[in-house]
Each structure stands twice: as structure tokens, then as C-alpha cells.
């Protein structure tokens, strides 16, 4: 801990002071701490959970694993770390990713600066002192020059508002808030509500335990096989030898932070048999790169239809009952316009005699009874309920903090019509407040660790630049923000993404403004934009030096 020079002498300060408060100890918060500390900043990290790991601390449901391959879904900032950590499978399961997060915390001696079981409830900018007062759930208030929200994009689990849920007699689990002890569904009748990524991962595992599993589906989703397998030491070594190229490609060339071939043509440039052969090859390889077969699948509906038709045909081949197969075939959104899922035997699970699919679009859930889910047409008796109902994505965890910037304005007031940021990193009126993988940045459209590292590096460079020049505050300029928000929106609407009612659009949360939140321009282009902004002396931001009145622009 160190006192801020300009704050420490103030009589108003009765609390501890840090250069930076970081909220959240997932991959973003941990790397932010490591990087800032390396530059000599004093940092306090607050984490509401009982340990580090974020997503991988909370999401312990059966079958939880990453869907970006582990050799790429891992930090690149330390050569030693990436050479020494052995991923056991192509897509590591949640316990292993959590062990990795804990290893990082220990290896880089992060724990002394992380306060666990402590929620940040309030952050208020003091315009006189140019600092943030941060109040936590243990009743303390600390002061920091900067606050960094590393609160996660998928960290605010969404509880569905279903009549009678509170009176259900059995156990209710949310995939995003799974208990720490092993849950065994053996002999139980289980209901899973929701069919997004978490359901797609957990349904095949729960089906093996439950005496009967009923899956309540509102929207069918596209899913590609993972073909998960153990990684051999030869495979790991081959990958590690290529790490410099793979990591550089992910950062500087790719759109989504994943190493893959760059497609050189559109789907309609190939004839039917050639196209089918390409889709077959990618299906056999499995994983997220399915969408990189052609360069126009996210742009051209006719091209997209060829990929969507291919996956629908695969579902019909796998699922024996034609009625169930039809229900599982997504038909209300272009493939990829919702986060594409990666599965192990999801569709085949519906061939099991102990699994039933219920279409709650045509036959909605009316209420939860003490021992059953009642739809309009029928009652389904269940002993336990699994809510795989997702998250209030990208803004949910930020919105839970009472953040007050200049003139007492709250961030929630400012974002009433949807989140507004410059580069996804800052929001005008909230000086010295940074967001990692915030709305307006590639974020959830990418391999998140690539995007996290880019933001952390940029923020660290930025605050180091400010310290070297005695600059006390930095704030996004309103016109730069407006231009960026318009750009994010415009780019989104050149693609098929806004055609889906997705959580990218906020469509899964009743009353949430519907705008496309992440930046779709691609991580390589985005990185270049951020670097250019920094090279031009942080163009689009107002910087104010020590002793100067606020709002004297440096750029
Ligand atoms: C099941 C699942 C699988 C995923 N798989 C992948 C994948 O394969 N590839 C990929 O790129 N991404 C994946 N993601 C996205 C994943 O969230 C990111 O990859 C990454 O883990 C995010 O790290 P983070 O540190 O930004 O956020 P998080 O891991 O969400 O951590 C944020 C932390 O902030 C804490 N926090 C929030 N608010 C407060 C507060 N007010 N006070 C104190 N603490 C607070 C939370 O408790 C949480 O621990 C997946 C997400 C889920 C849910």
C-alpha cells in the first residue's frame, strides 16, 4: 500500500490509499495486478468470491470446460508459464482451469494484494482530489487514483422470473453459481431450463446420472462437436514450439484471437460438393474454427445459410426421432450470430430413453409447482432443477456497483439507453475508471484471454505514461465516445449478428436496451486502433496534469 502524494496530506482522507483498485480476480484482475505491480504501482484487488479464477470459480456445473482450445485459452504474458503448464485435454475441464488460475496466483505471488469475499458496492469520484472512493461490503472505504473494473462479462448469473420457483421443494441450481461440493443426480428426475452453452455442456453429463432428464428449450442453438481428447506430450511440444507465431497471429492478424487458417473465399465461390467437403472437414476437426471455413459467413445470409443447412442436416442425421431432431434444428437466427456452442454428444443425448425435450416456445412454462414444471399443456415431475439461463452479459456486474462520476452522475444513469464507451475502455464523465473487455471492445466475440491481455497492457502503459508526465486524470472526450459508439453500431449492422435475439444484444434480459454491445471489427484491427490512439498521445482523451484545473486538454 502506498499513499497518493496529492491525497495523503488531505485532511479528508481517513482511509487507506492505493494507486489502483481493481474489482474482480478472474483472469483480467489477476493479470492487471501482476502488470501494475511490476511497474511499481500499489494495487488492491477486491473479489466477491472465496478465491481467484472468476468464471472458473463460479461455473462448476457438470461438463463445464472452455470452448477455445486450452493451448490458446491461456495467458501468453509469461514464456515460462506457457512452457511449464501442461494442459491435459484439448479443452480443459473447469477444475483444471481453476487449478491453473490458482497456480498463476501462487506463482506470481498475487494473493497478498487480493482481498477475497469482499464485494465492491460503491465507487465515487472526488472531483476535488481527483481520486476514487471505493466502498466494499466489509464496510471499508479506500481511496485510489484509478479504478479498474475487471468484473467479467459473464459473471452476473440471470435468475429467470418464473412463477412458483421459490416454492419448488427440490434443489435448484444455477449453472453460473454451482455449489462447490459434487452434485450427484443419480436416481433423480432432473429438469434443465435453457439450451445455451452451459446446458449444451451439462446435459450429456447429467443425462448419464439422472433417472430422467427433461430439457426445456425455448431457442435451439447451433453446436459443433468438440471432439475433445487428451493432449499428448508430443502435441503440447509441437504447439509450444510454434507459440511465438500462434500468439502473434492471434493478437495481430486474427479477428477473434484464435489461430486458424485465414479463409480466402466466400461460401458461394465453391460449388455444392466442394463446399460440403470443406464443411465436413471442419466438422471432423471440430471446435470454433468451423465458422472460419469461408470469409463471408457472418456477412452474407445466403452464404450463412449453406453452413446453417449443413449443421441442421448433421442434427437430423444424429437425432433418431424426426420430431425431436426438428426441434433441435435452429431456424430463427443465422449460424454464428449467437455465440456458437461446442459440445460433446449433445444432440446424441436426445436418443437416450431417459431424456425428453420440451419445446417451451410453443408450450411455455406457466409455473413451477413444488414437484414439477408446469407448461401450458402438461406437467413434468422433477426432483431437481438446473437453471442454465445464462447471464446479464457485459454490463450486469458493472451495473450492480453504484458508480458515481463527475457531477454525481451514475454510470447506470448514463447507460440507461445502453452502454456508451470510448474504445470499450473508458466512459466520458468517469475519469480514471477503466473497464477490461467492456462493451465497445471485441471482448466476448474473441478468445477472451487475448483481449484481456491487450487491455491490461494498454491500461498499464497508459497509467505509466500519466505518472511519467505528472498527469492526474484522464477522461474520454464526449465526441470521441460518440464517434466510437456510432462506429461500433455501424460495423455491427454490416453483419448478420444483430439479426439474432442474443445476449450480445441484451435480448435475454427483459427491459434491457437492445444494442449490439461488443465491437465486431476484430481483435487485430481493434488492437491497432488502440495502439494508434496511444501513439498520438491518447487521442480522444482529455488528460489533466497535477496542479492544473481539470479539463485542460493534453490532446
Ligand atoms: C462456462 C463458461 C465458459 C467460458 N469459456 C470460454 C472460452 O472457452 N473462451 C473464452 O474466451 N471465454 C470463455 N468464457 C468467458 C470467460 O468469462 C472469460 O474467458 C474469462 O474467464 C473472463 O475473465 P474476467 O477476469 O474478465 O472475468 P470473470 O472471470 O468473470 O471474473 C470477474 C470476477 O469479478 C468478480 N466481481 C464482479 N463484480 C464484483 C464486485 N462488485 N466486487 C468484487 N468482485 C466482483 C466476480 O466475482 C468474478 O470473480 C466462458 C464463460 C463461461 C461462463
Task: Give a description of the structure.
The chain is α/β, with parallel strands linked by helices and 555 residues long. Helix 10 runs antiparallel to helix 11 and helix 15 packs parallel to helix 17. The site of flavin-adenine dinucleotide (FAD) has 37 residues, from helix 2, helix 3 and helix 15.
Bound compounds, please? flavin-adenine dinucleotide
Please describe the biggest sheet, giving its number of strands, its sense, and whether it closes into a barrel.
8 strands, mixed
Number of helices: 17
Structural class: alpha/beta
Distance between the termini: 31 Å
Counting DSSP E segments of at least 2 residues, the number of strands comes to 20
Poorly predicted sequence stretches spanning 5 or more consecutive residues = 1-13
Rg measurement, Å: 24 Å
Strand content of the residues, in percent? Answer: 15-25%
Strand and helix map with partners:
Layout (H helix, E strand, L loop, with lengths): L4 H4 L8 E7 L3 H12 L4 E4 L8 H4 L20 H6 L9 H14 L6 E2 L4 E7 L4 E6 L4 E9 L21 E4 L14 E5 L3 H13 L2 E6 L5 E3 L7 H9 L1 H10 L19 H14 L15 H18 L3 H7 L12 E3 L2 H4 L5 E5 L5 E5 L2 E4 L3 E3 L2 E4 L8 H4 L2 E3 L6 H4 L18 E3 L12 H21 L2 E6 L1 H15 L30 H13 L5 E5 L10
Parallel strand pairs: 1-2, 1-6, 2-3, 4-17, 6-18, 7-16, 8-9, 8-16, 9-12, 10-11
Antiparallel strand pairs: 4-5, 5-6, 13-14, 14-15, 19-20
The structure holds flavin-adenine dinucleotide.
Amino acid at each position: 500500500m502506498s499513499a497518493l502524494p496529492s491525497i495523503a496530506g488531505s485532511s479528508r482522507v481517513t482511509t487507506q490509499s492505493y494507486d489502483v483498485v481493481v474489482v474482480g480476480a478472474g483472469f483480467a484482475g489477476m493479470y492487471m495486478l501482476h502488470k501494475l505491480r511490476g511497474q511499481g504501482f500499489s494495487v488492491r484487488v477486491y473479489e466477491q468470491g472465496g478465491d481467484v479464477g472468476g468464471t472458473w470459480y463460479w461455473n462448476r456445473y457438470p461438463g463445464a470446460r472452455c470452448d477455445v482450445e486450452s493451448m490458446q485459452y491461456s495467458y501468453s504474458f509469461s514464456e515460462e508459464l506457457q512452457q511449464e503448464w501442461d494442459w491435459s485435454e484439448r479443452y480443459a475441464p473447469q477444475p483444471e482451469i481453476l487449478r491453473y488460475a490458482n497456480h498463476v496466483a501462487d506463482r506470481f505471488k498475487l494473493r497478498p494484494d487480493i482481498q477475497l469475499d469482499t464485494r465492491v458496492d460503491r465507487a465515487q469520484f472526488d472531483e476535488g482530489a481527483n481520486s476514487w472512493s471505493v466502498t466494499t461490503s466489509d464496510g471499508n472505504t479506500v481511496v485510489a487514483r484509478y479504478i479498474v473494473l475487471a468484473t467479467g462479462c459473464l459473471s452476473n448469473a440471470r435468475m429467470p422470473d418464473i412463477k412458483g420457483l421459490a416454492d419448488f421443494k427440490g434443489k435448484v441450481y444455477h449453472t453460473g453459481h454451482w455449489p462447490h461440493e459434487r452434485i450427484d443426480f443419480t436416481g433423480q428426475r432432473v429438469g434443465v431450463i435453457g439450451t445455451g452453452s452451459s446446458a449444451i455442456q451439462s446435459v450429456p453429463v447429467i443425462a448419464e446420472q439422472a433417472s430422467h432428464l427433461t430439457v426445456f428449450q425455448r431457442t435451439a442453438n447451433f453446436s459443433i462437436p468438440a471432439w475433445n481428447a487428451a493432449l499428448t506430450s508430443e502435441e503440447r511440444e509441437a504447439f509450444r514450439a510454434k507459440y511465438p507465431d500462434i500468439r502473434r497471429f492471434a493478437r495481430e492478424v486474427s479477428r477473434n484471437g484464435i489461430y486458424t487458417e485465414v479463409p480466402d473465399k466466400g461460401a458461394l465461390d465453391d460449388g455444392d460438393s466442394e463446399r460440403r467437403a470443406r464443411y465436413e472437414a471442419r466438422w471432423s476437426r471440430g471446435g470454433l474454427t468451423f465458422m472460419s471455413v469461408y470469409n463471408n459467413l457472418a456477412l452474407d445470409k445466403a452464404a450463412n445459410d449453406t453452413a446453417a443447412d449443413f449443421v441442421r442436416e448433421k442434427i437430423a442425421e444424429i437425432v433418431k426421432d424426426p420430431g425431436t431432431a426438428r426441434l433441435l434444428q435452429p431456424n430463427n437466427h443465422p449460424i454464428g450470430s449467437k455465440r456458437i456452442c461446442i459440445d460433446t454428444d449433445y444432440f446424441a443425448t436426445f436418443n437416450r430413453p431417459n431424456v425428453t425435450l420440451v419445446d417451451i416456445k410453443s408450450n411455455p412454462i406457466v409455473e413451477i409447482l413444488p414437484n414439477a414444471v408446469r407448461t401450458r399443456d402438461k406437467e413434468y415431475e422433477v426432483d431437481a432443477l438446473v437453471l442454465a439461463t445464462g447471464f446479464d452479459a457485459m454490463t450486469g456486474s458493472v451495473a450492480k456497483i453504484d458508480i458515481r462520476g463527475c457531477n454525481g452522475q451514475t454510470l447506470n444513469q448514463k447507460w440507461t439507453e445502453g452502454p456508451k464507451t470510448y474504445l470499450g475502455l473508458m466512459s466520458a464523465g468517469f475519469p480514471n475508471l477503466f473497464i477490461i473487455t467492456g462493451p465497445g471492445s471485441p471482448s466476448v466475440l474473441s478468445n477472451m484471454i487475448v483481449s484481456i491481455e491487450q487491455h491490461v497492457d494498454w491500461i498499464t502503459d497508459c497509467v505509466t505514461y500519466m505518472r511519467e508526465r505528472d498527469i492526474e486524470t484522464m477522461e474520454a472526450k464526449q465526441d470521441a465516445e460518440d464517434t466510437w459508439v456510432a462506429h461500433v453500431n455501424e460495423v455491427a449492422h454490416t453483419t448478420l449478428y444483430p439479426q439474432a435475439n442474443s445476449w450480445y444484444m441484451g435480448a435475454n434480459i427483459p427491459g434491457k436496451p437492445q444494442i449490439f454491445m461488443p465491437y465486431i471489427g476484430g481483435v487485430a484491427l481493434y488492437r491497432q486502433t488502440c495502439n494508434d490512439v496511444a501513439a498520438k498521445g491518447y487521442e480522444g482523451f482529455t488528460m489533466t496534469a497535477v496542479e492544473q484545473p481539470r479539463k485542460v486538454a493534453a490532446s
